[in-house]
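Provenance

Sequences were taken from public entries as deposited. Structures were produced by running a predictor on each sequence independently, with no templates supplied. The record for histidine kinase from Mahella australiensis is shown for reference.
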Amino acid sequence: MSNKTEIWRYIKNYKFNSIFVKNFILVLLLIILPLVGLSIGVYGYYNNLMQGEMRELNANALSKVRDMVDVMIRETDKQSLNIASDQDVQWFLMFPMDYASADDIYNKTQAVNRNINMVVNSSDYIDSIYIYSERNDFVLSTRGNGTLSDFYDKSWHTSYTTNKNDMFYWNELRQGADATGVIHKYISIYRTINPFDRKSEGTVVININVERLGGLFGNVTPERFENVFMVDAGGKVLYNKDPAVMGKDIKAVTPIEYPGSDGTISRPIVDINGIKEVISIVPSEYNDWTMISIVPLSQYEYKIRYLRAFMTIIIMICIIIGVVLSFFAAIRIFRPIKDIIVLMEKPSEWMQSSKGTNNSDEFKYIADNIMKTLDENQEMGKELERRLELLKSAQALALQSQISPHFLYNTLETINWMAVRLTGGPNEVSSTVVALSQLLRLSFETEGNLIPITVEIKHAQRYVDIQRTRYNDKFDVLWSIADEIMDCKILKITLQPLIENAIYHGIKPKTGKGMISIKAYKMGADIIIEVADNGIGIPRDEVVRLNTELSGDYYAKEGQHIGLRNVNQRIKLMFGQKYGITIESEQNVGTTVCVLIPIVK
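Predicted structure for histidine kinase:
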């Protein structure tokens, strides 16, 4: 049979469990994975490089916007301060117009109007300026003068009355009407006027037209800046190309994060409505405003697409080469394994074909050991047959040994009836014999290591009956077992050693009558059993030593009587290290042994 045919047969029989297939996949991965990983690494590096360059370009462009806005606001603040300091404005605020002559009022107001009109006409973004005298309840503006009640735009007055006592300078985005009644959006900058450092006598309001501001943004920002936000310290959008967005909280408009204390953001590229966007944030250097730009990543991805196509071609070529190399490498690796399979299936034929060869390699060493193992297996088969015969004999002896417990029960029952017949009725001897018989029957006839708590309690009660007879009622036993745990399982012979420990080490040395309290209750997913006595107690250092020993991996020696250590070790072996026995004791007061086991139904 040819090598190709045999390899195909192994692949067909074992499929993906075939060593040939496993080796082929392993070699394939060893060749392809480094090449693919390198390609992905190069792609990722170039992609990150491009994104970093893109973020830097966006930040630089946004910084130009920030600088323009800072210059604009700085100039506006300077103009508002000059207007507030003007002597004619001071006269308008302080002097009651009711006592001034018509010529004085006309000359002063005309001077103020010429001044503020010159400021508006020389600016590309200032729409109007208001000067309000609280004493005269009068407004001077670039669009006409008049009392506040007759003035066409009153929406600014609410902000003034709210903030005049707390701030001397602030700004807000608001809607206001012009002289023709058309509503516009303004960024209004307020400066209260406090002549001689007294309370506010009025304010200067400079209104920046948002539409004109958008035109300035368009002249400074490149075309790719589709979405630019100007945000105040409270997160309110002061400017955006979409009028419906202005005045809203930036977090309600777009899912971006503000920069941390180091001025950076953890996610400069975010997914917004299924489109990857590049976020750039530049804070103002003059006030508490922030400039934010959101640019689609798709504007830069044409370079990445070229790189992605080139890397895909390289990876496909690597995969084809890897498949061919892996196939031939797997055939060479599989050849010794094929010979071992022949050896295992037909050892006699292999022995005949290998005669006369003097190869001294790893395969020869493996073949010799396989033949040695086959010989040893034949010997072990013979030994196994002999041991099976011995096992059958042991099983027969085990059947015979089952007679002994039944003989013991029958004998105790005979003693019981003899005691009853001699005394003419039940007596202490007959009661003790019955208790002993029931105790032995529970011990021998219950199957398995785990038994219901009800059965374990019956076993312990029979033991208590025998001991109370022996010690002439030297102690009383108080049982307090929760009904909800009666059907739960417990290790066989758990309570009896604990009660025995309480009798022999606590109650027996005590003067007077003793009391043993046995409690069992549920706590969470566990059961707690407490066996307490009012005996002589245990010294503190001995309690510490015993608890340390019980918490470790103590193993009772073979032949040692059943005691606390034995019960503790059986619990740990059955349920795990978190369960077991702990001891609390105080000399001349008593001892409490606490058992923790899980709830097992």
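The CA atoms of residues 283 and 290 lie 4 Å apart.
Confidence is low (pLDDT under 50) at residues 394-404, 556-562.
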